[in-house]
Specification:
Blueprint lengths: L10 H11 L3 H8 L3 H8 L7 H13 L10 H6 L1
Helix pairs in contact: 2-3
Amino acid sequence: MKHRKGKEWDRERILALRRHLGLTQAEMAGELGTRQQTISEWETGMYQPRGTSATLLNIIAERGKFDYEVKKSKEERDEH
Protein backbone atom coordinates (compact mmCIF):
# COMPACT_ATOMS: atom_id res chain seq x y z
CA MET A 1 0.00 0.00 0.00
CA LYS A 2 1.44 3.35 -1.05
CA HIS A 3 1.53 6.26 1.34
CA ARG A 4 0.04 9.36 -0.25
CA LYS A 5 2.01 12.50 0.27
CA GLY A 6 0.19 15.80 0.18
CA LYS A 7 -3.46 16.39 -0.42
CA GLU A 8 -5.81 14.98 -2.99
CA TRP A 9 -6.40 17.19 -6.04
CA ASP A 10 -10.17 17.25 -6.41
CA ARG A 11 -12.14 19.54 -8.72
CA GLU A 12 -12.72 22.24 -6.11
CA ARG A 13 -9.06 22.40 -5.11
CA ILE A 14 -7.85 22.61 -8.73
CA LEU A 15 -10.29 25.42 -9.51
CA ALA A 16 -9.33 27.25 -6.32
CA LEU A 17 -5.61 26.96 -7.20
CA ARG A 18 -6.16 28.28 -10.72
CA ARG A 19 -8.18 31.23 -9.44
CA HIS A 20 -5.63 31.91 -6.69
CA LEU A 21 -2.93 32.14 -9.34
CA GLY A 22 -5.12 34.29 -11.60
CA LEU A 23 -4.75 31.93 -14.55
CA THR A 24 -7.13 30.92 -17.31
CA GLN A 25 -7.50 27.22 -18.03
CA ALA A 26 -5.28 27.66 -21.09
CA GLU A 27 -2.59 29.45 -19.07
CA MET A 28 -2.64 26.79 -16.36
CA ALA A 29 -2.42 24.11 -19.05
CA GLY A 30 0.68 25.85 -20.38
CA GLU A 31 2.24 25.86 -16.90
CA LEU A 32 1.62 22.13 -16.58
CA GLY A 33 2.47 21.18 -20.16
CA THR A 34 -0.98 19.79 -20.82
CA ARG A 35 -4.08 20.75 -22.82
CA GLN A 36 -6.74 23.26 -21.77
CA GLN A 37 -9.28 20.45 -22.17
CA THR A 38 -7.46 18.45 -19.48
CA ILE A 39 -7.77 21.33 -16.99
CA SER A 40 -11.46 21.59 -17.85
CA GLU A 41 -11.94 17.85 -17.30
CA TRP A 42 -10.25 18.08 -13.89
CA GLU A 43 -12.40 21.06 -12.88
CA THR A 44 -15.63 19.34 -13.90
CA GLY A 45 -14.62 16.21 -12.00
CA MET A 46 -14.50 14.03 -15.12
CA TYR A 47 -10.92 13.05 -14.28
CA GLN A 48 -8.43 13.60 -11.46
CA PRO A 49 -4.77 14.41 -11.96
CA ARG A 50 -2.43 11.55 -11.22
CA GLY A 51 1.28 10.94 -11.14
CA THR A 52 3.37 13.73 -12.62
CA SER A 53 0.38 16.06 -13.05
CA ALA A 54 -0.48 15.83 -9.36
CA THR A 55 3.17 16.40 -8.44
CA LEU A 56 3.33 19.48 -10.69
CA LEU A 57 0.14 20.83 -9.09
CA ASN A 58 1.79 20.41 -5.68
CA ILE A 59 4.87 22.33 -6.85
CA ILE A 60 2.83 25.13 -8.43
CA ALA A 61 0.67 25.38 -5.29
CA GLU A 62 3.72 25.59 -3.05
CA ARG A 63 5.43 28.23 -5.19
CA GLY A 64 2.21 30.24 -5.39
CA LYS A 65 1.78 30.07 -1.59
CA PHE A 66 -1.57 28.37 -2.09
CA ASP A 67 -3.08 27.14 1.16
CA TYR A 68 -6.33 25.31 0.58
CA GLU A 69 -8.03 23.47 3.37
CA VAL A 70 -10.82 21.08 2.59
CA LYS A 71 -13.81 21.81 4.78
CA LYS A 72 -14.13 19.01 7.29
CA SER A 73 -17.45 17.48 8.11
CA LYS A 74 -18.86 17.95 11.60
CA GLU A 75 -17.99 14.33 12.44
CA GLU A 76 -14.34 14.83 11.46
CA ARG A 77 -14.09 18.03 13.52
CA ASP A 78 -15.60 16.31 16.56
CA GLU A 79 -13.02 13.50 16.37
CA HIS A 80 -10.11 15.91 17.02
